[in-house]
Amino acid sequence: MKKSHYDVVIVGGGLAGLSAAAYLSHQGKKVVLIERGKLGGRAMTIKMKGFQFNFGAHAIYGRDQSFLTTMEKEMGLKLYWSDFTQMKAKYDLGEEVSVVPSNIGGLIQTKLLKGMDKFRFAYHILFTTLGFEKGDPNVSIQEWLENKKVSPAVKEMMLNLASSNFFTGEPERIPSDVFFGYYRRLFKTNIPVSYIQGGWEKLINEFVRVIEKNGGEILTKTKATNVVVDTNKVKEVHANKTIFTADDFIFAIPPEELRELYKGSVLEEDLEDYKNFEPTYVMFYDIGLRRRIDSPYTYIFDKERQIFISDISYYDMEAAPPGGQLLQAVAYLKKHEIEDLKRTRKNQTKY
């Protein structure tokens, strides 16, 4: 096997790996990124019948305070943005819709909270923004809310918001310090949600451009098969008959893949906790319409079914052909719910 040495070896070519490679190569580091499949990982854009379908998360949250904006300025990323229209976001309550309380105006108008609960929710927003509510890394947000005896309506509101922002069907398991750290930034932002014109493909291409411009290497169809660890530090990564050595390594791959890669090494025990977490399965329902349906809403949260529906083409002019419309519904399911869906579909085909 041939040996290649770098300042940094990055395993995984999703948005995390690509952004790390772009940033480090821009800082003058000799970088190689290895990816077993296509760049983008779970965030990619697929073109089909005149539509551009985005997989993975479909928006950037808190753009004006995000690290991506810092990278955009420092590295000259050529991105074009469309920002979320808050008053076009609604909660579907079954028999009526209500404004999403993502700002003070929305909080006043929303039907999700009534009476004193509006003030209680505003209190938590204020204290989170000021940094008085920080949470604890050893206490989940569910435990924190119970310990603080937060009212049921406010508790439900906070967890509903977390579902959409953290992309999880189990928001109650989020560590409370992560929860409040995230919302402290989001409540301060002037741009809560933004979309990239052209989808993830544009962002991926910009990262690739920066990496290659600065002498970085990108190797696709290159699967990491083994790591060599010495005194708790990774020394080598083996992939495609090549031994990659480096001063530092970054692994931007899912936890289950990371556990498999470290199997048999002295660091395997450090990853044992990951096996206790059941992954959340994300279901996307993309509907491309040739003729646009006018609607006063661009975002709907179906509260009963926990499904988020966005009019992607309202924000991304490249998502649909002229006059067309691209709608995307996102649901977060557990493994047993996926199996239930498969059984339901199988039974439906019999009749």
Structure notes:
The chain has 351 residues and is α+β, with helices and mostly antiparallel strands. The protein folds into 3 domains: 159 residues, FAD/NAD(P)-binding domain; 91 residues, Guanine Nucleotide Dissociation Inhibitor, domain 1 (Orthogonal Bundle), CATH 1.10.405; 69 residues, no CATH class. The protein is 33% helix and 26% strand. The strands form 4 sheets. A 6-stranded mixed beta sheet has the order 10-2-1-13-12-11. A 6-stranded mixed beta sheet has the order 8-7-15-16-17-14. Helix 1 links the parallel strand 1 and strand 2.
Labels describing this entry:
alpha+beta, Guanine Nucleotide Dissociation Inhibitor, domain 1, FAD/NAD(P)-binding domain, six-stranded mixed beta sheet, 3 domains, globular, 11 helices, 351 residues
Strand order of the largest sheet: 10-2-1-13-12-11
Count of individual beta strands? 17
Strand content: 25-35%
Helix percent reads 25-40%
Could you please say which CATH topology of the largest domain applies here?
FAD/NAD(P)-binding domain
How many domains, as an integer? 3
So, the CATH homologous superfamily of the largest domain?
FAD/NAD(P)-binding domain
Unreliably modeled segments: none
Which architecture of the largest domain per CATH?
A: 3-Layer(bba) Sandwich
User: What is the typical, i.e. mean, pLDDT?
Assistant: 86
Shape: globular
**Total helical elements:** 11
Main β-sheet, in a few words? Answer: 6 strands, mixed
Quick overview:
By secondary structure, the chain is of the alpha+beta class. 33% of the residues lie in helices and 26% in strands.
